[in-house]
Design a protein that fits this description.
The protein is an alpha/beta fold. The protein has helices spanning 11-18, 39-49, 70-91, 123-133, 155-165, 182-194, 211-224, 257-263, 270-284; strands at 2-6, 25-29, 53-56, 94-100, 140-144, 147-148, 168-172, 176-177, 180-181, 199-202, 209-210, 233-237.
């Protein structure tokens, strides 16, 4: 089966390539191969590639910058998805699209189910929701949150850098979610694709924590591996103390039970996957 992966150079794109199953004849592309904001160029590239499945791991993810550049975010997060869907509708192929917890408003008190009401509070969230709306019933939508991977730009690696530079850090403690190791997310996407799944699924690692609690765990695990020389003071702060242009969801937990049931898998705790990622990070030097 011919599978085209977009966003090849991103955290998830790389993980999808590393975990690709034997049945997938993959090709992976990124911005140097095609401009997703150019519908004609994208359409032409899809004709050449002639994939049976597109796994769209490409996205405009600069959450704060999107507040002042929503048009560009929309062209990548929504308009490009529409082009992919149209191409696959013409060939009988399928789009596997990755989305985000930012389509929800973060006011819930229980994990968001796949069919929960969306109410995005940021330009990034709005454009990702618009992208979701471009999909057909036969396509596959996988939402996730708090993604990180060894070697990529993410919260985990930023914390390690700052911990090695500073004696004290302030980290937001009133936003709750579950970290997601990109490698685990990639495996779930491949497993759902192999089963021919369609509709909406959620994937995140098991457990609920704040960003502050995640930072504390990163410090402990990274110090044990020698990635952090000493553990600094990590102060809990409020969202109000760390203002950003885009509003972040205060509650980002996703209900992943249907995904695990469909795949017959047990949940993996976020700390287990954090250790695996940090071991890979240590090997990268």
């Amino acid at each position: 089966m011919r599978v085209l992966i977009t966003g090849a150079n991103g955290q998830l794109g790389g993980a999808l390539q590393r975990t690709a199953p034997g049945w997938a004849d993959i090709n992976a592309i990124d911005v140097e191969d095609v401009d997703l904001t150019d519908a004609a160029m994208l359409t032409a590239r899809l004709v050449v590639e002639a994939p049976d499945v597109i796994i769209n791991a490409a996205a405009y993810t600069a959450v704060d910058r999107a507040e002042s550049d929503e048009a560009l975010a929309r062209s990548i997060n929504a308009d490009a998805v529409a082009v992919m869907v149209e191409a696959m509708a013409g060939t009988g192929g399928k789009v596997v699209h990755v989305s985000t917890d930012y389509v929800f408003d973060g006011t819930a008190s229980a994990p968001y189910a796949p069919d929960a009401l969306r109410n995005p509070q940021s330009a990034y969230g709005r454009t990702k929701a618009e992208g979701e709306d471009k999909l057909r019933p036969e396509d596959l939508l996988v939402r996730t949150a708090w993604v990180y991977e060894a070697g990529g730009p993410n919260f985990v690696r930023t914390m390690i850098r700052l911990m090695n530079e500073r004696d004290e850090l302030g980290v937001v403690a009133d936003q709750v979610g579950s970290p997601t190791w990109a490698t685990g997310l990639a495996r779930t996407i491949w497993a759902l694709a192999e089963k021919g799944a369609s509709g909406t699924f959620h994937h995140a690692d098991d457990g609920a924590i704040s960003w502050h609690e995640f930072a504390v765990a990163i410090a402990e695990e990274a110090h044990a591996l020698g990635l952090v020389k000493r553990i600094p003071v990590i102060r809990p702060i409020t969202t109000a103390e760390y203002p950003t242009p885009a509003k972040r969801p205060a509650f980002s937990l996703l209900d992943c039970r249907a995904t695990r049931a469909a795949l017959g898998e047990e949940p993996v705790h976020w700390r287990t996957n954090l250790r695996l990622m940090l071991k890979e990070e240590a090997q990268l030097g």
